[in-house]
């Protein structure tokens, strides 16, 4: 980083651990700000912004600082690489500053009473509280000194904390240094909901530090930046409050367009999944994949999806989203009624009637002006047969329903007699053709025709009535039992053209009802995860299509962009016969996709024990063959060290070990197949991987092990097995969190008990001083709190900010937990650094029963 010398007025560069102590300036930008180039060329003195820089240096120097960091002149903004690195590092730079000066140019001198600390309207309405970047500049530093328009100090973050909390909506504990991970995603977003930035993208970039996210800056992407931020948050957090927003923009996506959507989400907190473990949200081109309970209201696929979050003081309730099943397949959904979130009483929900459902929800749909020119259009209507003979269920669309970039479905008023339906396709090059669906007995057929007869109902001025049958456009009908799969392509079926398959329409014929049922429309360019028809068929076990395509596509064909092979898709989908077929054809076991995941990782994470067993058996068979062949020519030294760390370079027969290593190795996020199986509670897969030599203590980047994740998600049998196989019960993450911390935080009582029986340190503390008792108390897990106390947990353990378990239970209003802690000797008068007691915390959040209990205890003490 670059620092400005407060006396010499020169810029110096520092790296690594050599950065000296420095002060940092927070301000709002004005006219003629001084840039790095201005400092180097001595143009700075002629600019309006020079006074701000010189005054900042004077204030910092007076407090004994030789260096100060100012965003206007300490970053070379002409270098996009440096700017991106600086924006990613900025939260840390503010956090590590020894002092932060917040210069409020619109707060007049003497508008704040320096004796009483009473602030006036000028402070409360300061522009500084409305800007996006100043949010992290307020939260990150431990100390902030506020300066008025004459650069005179009128208060600090500590002594003005109550006023700042009222202005910003940020609880005082987080202003004064509490770990931001204890605030939900929705709460943190709400703090930024009323803030503004000059550039749209900065609404996302200014929040990266609050979530510990690092991502490249792409100015010009607009609202997409905030979507990328939310996608990155999903990779590191399972917090469903990310989806708990309200907006008048009913765009159908589950991700918000901006922080403004979280304006009323400041009271939303995550809760542990009730009754059963839930898989964490994952991102795909098909949408956000979630495991939720879906309550269908019987109105054309509409219903409520229950999130694992609630409002403060409504612990038995859960928030739910209004979703619509787009294709009536119970798989693909869009969000509706985005202005509301429904509160559901979980005592009214029967888990057996509403089990966890695996579903995809569209993540985002940008608002844009429709440009008809160059778009591909598809017209669909299943009709034209005797109504008394047919039972047709048609997915309801608006008159013009935009399903995906490049595909429009429009209703038609007429279909030629004798036809079940028709698909009319207009390609970007203007060629028009139609597919006619006919029924003969119990089977369906499709014919391609370039005729434009009866297309006058398409209300599009750009439709070109071209004649001539284009043989490059193929419709392939493949019969598979009672299902007919019709694949529509712009070029050729086998995707040898430059673009991917336009779409797949699956039409199912019912032998009991004389009709056709539209089951699914999927746009392979963006609508679903699989980017090719081959991978689509491999994951779903569509044997006829799969075998038809395999010879021409090849077993190692990769999906464009994500590098996933058919074996990878089949392993994820649990398609045992397809996996066997691919292995017999010589598919590469250790091939990895863009996220570093091998087929074994996908099978293990999805809990497909048979597939895991197949893949490992294939490795064993190959190793046996290699053993019988004898010595092999060794790889070069660098090759072995790259492929298999720790393997002796002189080894002449290590191919099998290399293959096993790659199979069992971590992905780009550090997660091994064992980690993924453990996090999802797939006990049989966990057992199998451990039997085959998986490293039970392998840790991801933050230090979490399979035991951490199994404990966190309450997978008791997995926890038990991992411990039996040598998992370190007291292993800690980089921030000092142990498996007992994770289990206690989520209230998994049986896991807490087992970990303690196996020697878990009941008073283990994180870097911030949090113990398992702090975690259980925060979420009001009464039985876990009891157990921890019985096992010797320190009832008055204090964090680095002097917060005790009683503070945390009082903050969230957990009355029974507060009562138990007091009975066990908790200090009712314990105060954090700014002097706040548990009573102050309870009062701030309006927990009246807790307030009465704490006040009575103080009086009686």
SSE layout and pairings?
Layout: E1 2-5, E2 11-13, E3 23-26, H1 36-40, H2 50-62, E4 67-69, H3 80-96, E5 99-103, H4 121-124, H5 133-139, E6 144-147, E7 153-156, H6 161-168, H7 172-175, H8 185-191, H9 202-205, H10 208-211, H11 224-236, E8 268-270, E9 282-284, E10 287-299, E11 302-306, E12 309-311, E13 317-325, E14 332-336, E15 342-345, E16 356-361, E17 376-382, E18 400-404, E19 407-410, E20 421-426, E21 432-440, E22 443-449, E23 475-480, E24 483-488, E25 503-509, E26 516-522, H12 533-540, H13 543-553, H14 566-573, H15 576-584, H16 599-606, H17 609-629, H18 637-643, H19 655-664, H20 673-679, H21 683-691, H22 706-712, H23 716-724, H24 739-746, H25 749-757, H26 772-778, H27 782-790, H28 805-811, H29 815-823, H30 838-844, H31 848-860
Parallel strand pairs: 3-4, 3-5, 5-6, 14-16, 17-19
Antiparallel strand pairs: 1-2, 1-4, 6-7, 8-12, 9-10, 10-11, 10-16, 11-13, 13-14, 13-15, 17-20, 18-19, 20-21, 21-22, 23-24, 24-25, 25-26
Helix pairs in contact: 12-13, 12-14, 14-15, 14-16, 15-17, 16-17, 16-20, 17-19, 20-21, 20-22, 21-23, 22-23, 22-24, 24-25, 24-26, 25-27, 26-27, 26-28, 28-29, 28-30, 29-31, 30-31
Domain DUF8212: 224-250
Pfam family, one: Ank_2
Domain Heterokaryon incompatibility: 22-111
